[in-house]
Amino acid sequence: MVTGFSKYEGAGNDFIIVDVRNNGFQPEAALLARLCDRHFGIGADGVMLLAEDARYDCSMRYYNADGSEGEMCGNGARCFALFAMHRGICTRGKIKFRARDGVHTAWVRQLSGHCGEVVLGMTDVERIDANGAGWLLNTGVPHYVELVDDLDAVDVVGRGRALRRDTTRFPEGANIDFVEIAGGEVLRLRTYERGVEDETLACGTGAVAAALVAWFVREDKFTEVCVQVPGGELRVAFEPEPESGRFVNIRLTGPARRVFEGTFDTDNL
User: Fold this and answer.
1) In angstroms, how far is the first alpha carbon of the chain from the final one?
2) Looking at residue 146, what is its pLDDT?
3) What was the pLDDT predicted at 269?
4) Is residue 226 within 8 Å of residue 233, measured between CB atoms?
5) In the annotation, is 203 catalytic?
6) Disulfide-capable partner of 47 in 18, 38, 63, 172 (CB 3.0 to 4.6 Å)?
7) Which of 36, 79, 90, 203 is catalytic?
8) How far is CA 184 from each of CA 11, 31, 217, 231, rounded to the nearest angstrom?
9) Angle between helices 204-217 and 74-86 (to 10 degrees)
10) What is the rounded distance in angstroms from the CA atom of residue 23 to the CA atom of residue 201?
11) Catalytic residue among 73, 79, 90, 226
């Protein structure tokens, strides 16, 4: 079966996106993993499917690079919003779509051909819990955040893999974030991602987790921060509710870009 696809990236996080509204593409785990393979497939950190939705503009299903279905991907959802605009779904720059973790609204700004800046509304975060030397929270997917003094000295893959596989602390698994407070409103972040099982160039839900934990532990509070990742920069803004411990009106902003389009033959994977 020959299927059309698009390749997008946001701050170096790259994704294969397929519009399944008018085709019979079936997201089998082994096939998705093969598509994401950087040697034998197209290569990506994940796959997203755009489908119809009775109540919203469309729905998004996200799959990790190993073929497992994920709840949410912040950078992926920003790329998904730009893809939807390119497909003519959100002609006015605003889209509302359903994902596994809930309903999201995104705004595409500064659109210029293949590129755009996308603001993504995230789901509320209910709590932050201490966990060993770090903090555990759910920003759409579970994240463990550890603050470090020197990010460049951290063995992200080695330590990240060990923590990721600690089922006693993380029964459902977790993305592992190492965060350096660079000063003022600037954070530096590196992430070992569950489902990719490696460090990625960016992680949108990880950037949100880093920003919320930094606010939670610091005396100087910033509700808008710049998060520097290996693939570029993301911005996070939010509103804390100190009395309840919740964080609401969370927005993740950053670049998205269509890299190329093509087709793949499922019989050749």
Assistant:
1) 11
2) 98
3) 81
4) yes
5) yes
6) 63
7) 203
8) 22, 45, 14, 21
9) 130
10) 32
11) 73
What DSSP designation does 165 have?
T
Q: pLDDT for 117-136, tens place per residue? A: 999 999 999 999 999 999 99
Positive or negative CA dihedral for 121, 122, 123, 126? Answer: negative
Q: What is the pLDDT of residue 90?
A: 76
Cα distance between residue 73 and residue 124, in whole Å = 15
What is the pLDDT at residue 239?
Answer: 98
Token pair listed for 60: 């998004």
Closest residue by Cα to residue 144 from 213, 229, 45: 213
Is 115 among the residues known to form the active site?
A: no
- Residues 164, 142: Cα–Cα separation, whole Å: 11
3-state DSSP call for residue 125? strand
- Report CA 180 to chain centroid distance, whole Å: 20
d(CA 26, CA 73): 20
Encoded tokens for 256:
């998205």
Q: List the one residue out of 237, 198, 232, 193 whose CA is nearest residue 214.
A: 237
Residue whose C-alpha is closest to residue 16's, from 40, 30, 33: 33
Question: What's the full length of the chain, in residues?
Answer: 269
For 36, the token pair is 């994401």
Helices (H), the chain: 29-36, 74-86, 156-164, 204-217
Would you call 52 helix, strand, or coil by DSSP? Answer: coil
Q: What is the pTM of this model?
A: 0.95
Give, in order, the Cα–Cα distances in Å from 132 to each of 25, 117, 119, 170, 222. 43, 36, 33, 11, 24
pLDDT digit string (tens) for 174-184?
999 999 999 88
Query: Which is it for the CA torsion 75, 107, 90, 113, positive or negative?
Result: negative
